[in-house]
Each structure stands twice: as C-alpha cells, then as structure tokens.
Design brief:
The complex is a heterodimer of chains A (114) and B (110). With 114 residues, chain A is mainly beta. Chain A has a single domain, classed as Immunoglobulins (Immunoglobulin-like, Sandwich), CATH 2.60.40.10. Helices cover 0% and strands 49% of the residues of chain A. Chain A starts with a strand and ends with a strand. Chain B is globular, with a radius of gyration of 13 Å. Chain B has one domain: Immunoglobulins (Immunoglobulin-like). Chain B has 110 residues and is mainly beta. Chain B contains no helices and eleven strands. The model of chain B has no long low-confidence stretch (mean pLDDT 93). The chains are: A mainly beta (114), B mainly beta (110). Chains A and B meet through strand 4, strand 5 and strand 10 of A and strand 4, strand 5, strand 9 and strand 10 of B.
Chain lengths: 114, 110
C-alpha cells in the first residue's frame, strides 16, 4: 500500500541553525501539506502546495519557512533559523484529486531545537 | 476566523460502551469534513464527509455530517481498548487549507 514517508524521524539542532525536513508523498498525489504539532497541542496547518507553488499558508508559516519540490518526488520544508519554539512534530501529508479528498499523513519528524 | 470545535475534549469509558464524539465548525468555504484517529504518532484517516445526511460506516465506526447545523458526529459502538486514541476532526476548505479541531482523547478501560 502506498504511503507518505518522512526523513529523518528525529532531528536535533541548535537554535539558529537551518533544518530541512524531507517528505516523499504518495506518487500520484497532487496536493502536499506540512503541519506541525507541538507536544500536547493540536495539529496546526502550515502550508499547502499544488502545481509547484504554495496555494495556502498559515500565519505560522513566516519568512523563516520555505517549501520546495526539488525533483518531482521529494517535498521539503526548510526552517532557516530555528527557534526554541519550533520544537514540534512536523507532519507531511498528501492527497490526490482523483481519489477524492482523503489525505494521508507521513509518520512525522520530531524536531528538537536546543 | 475559521474554527473547529470538538467535544468532549476527554472521555473515559469501559469496553463495550458506545461513544459519540462531536465536531462543530464555523468556517468560510467549507469543502469536506474529515475524521482521523491519532494514536502515538501520525493521524490515520477514518472518514471523509462531503454531503449532509449520508452515513459513512467502517466496522464499529460510523459518522454523519449535518451541513445545515454545521456539525458532525463520530460513533463508536462496542468499544475496545484498541480504540483508545485522540480523535481529530478537520475541515477542508476550498483553497486547500485544513483546519483541525483540538481532538477528543478517548480512553477505553478493560
């Protein structure tokens, strides 16, 4: 069964460093998303991506964040200068138009900023 | 501001009980409502509801949407300890934005 994969599963970084979180969405999916979930809190939408551009972004997704689909299979989230409050679980998700609006999540990357 | 509210936030039941989880929403440009189960890590998809009044069923789980009253319910019958999880309600908006509710934490005791 196709699935969304994410790497790494856990990333530890120093405050101020850049991190890149990687995702491989399901291959025939067209819409890609990043979410974050701070420990014990609700899932928060960050950004959606369709047709090689951002279609929606939340207030959380400021200039420190960027997304890219560099090679047609990977979908990356970059945080330029990490802050302590960026520590969270980051989920990638994808969905396909033809399959309806079902959205499938990856296993997540736990980001810890020290 | 788009908002999704879930109730109760926490629920403790015994195996065999039936539970009803509630989700209400106030959003612009509603497209669909989705239910997810989150155990230890990533949410797993349960149901997607787009039309009012049509019940979706999967085993002991069922869900229905009321677009006039802006809510959905998720029913779980004959609960088992494996049903213990956080159940998330999310609304998909036109424009590809998802808005999640805070979740209902269900604990099923043996």
């Amino acid at each position: 069964e196709p699935e969304v994969t994410q790497t790494p599963s856990h990333q530890v970084t120093q405050m101020g460093q850049e991190v890149i979180l990687r995702c491989v969405p399901i291959s025939n999916h067209l819409y890609f998303y990043w979410y974050r979930q701070i420990l014990g809190q609700k899932v928060e939408f960050l950004v959606s991506f369709y047709n090689n551009e951002i279609s929606e972004k939340s207030e959380i997704f400021d200039d420190q964040f960027s997304v890219e689909r560099p090679d047609g299979s990977n979908f990356t989230l970059k945080i330029r200068s990490t802050k302590l409050e960026d520590s969270a679980m980051y989920f990638c998700a994808s969905r396909g138009e033809l399959a309806g609006n079902e959205q499938f999540f990856g296993p997540g990357t736990r980001l810890t900023v020290l | 501001e788009d908002k999704v509210v879930q109730s109760p936030l926490s629920l403790v039941v015994h195996e065999g009980d039936t539970v009803t989880l509630n989700c209400s929403y106030e959003v612009t440009n509603f497209r669909s409502l989705l239910w997810y189960k989150q155990e230890k890590k990533a949410p797993t998809f349960l149901f997607m509801l787009t039309s009012s009044g049509i019940e979706k069923k999967s085993g002991r789980l069922s869900s229905i949407l009321d677009k006039k009253e802006l809510f959905s319910i998720l029913n779980i019958t004959a609960t088992q300890t494996g049903d213990s999880a956080v159940y998330l309600c999310a609304v998909l908006l036109y424009g590809q934005n998802f808005v999640f509710g805070p979740g209902t934490r269900l604990s099923v005791l043996p």
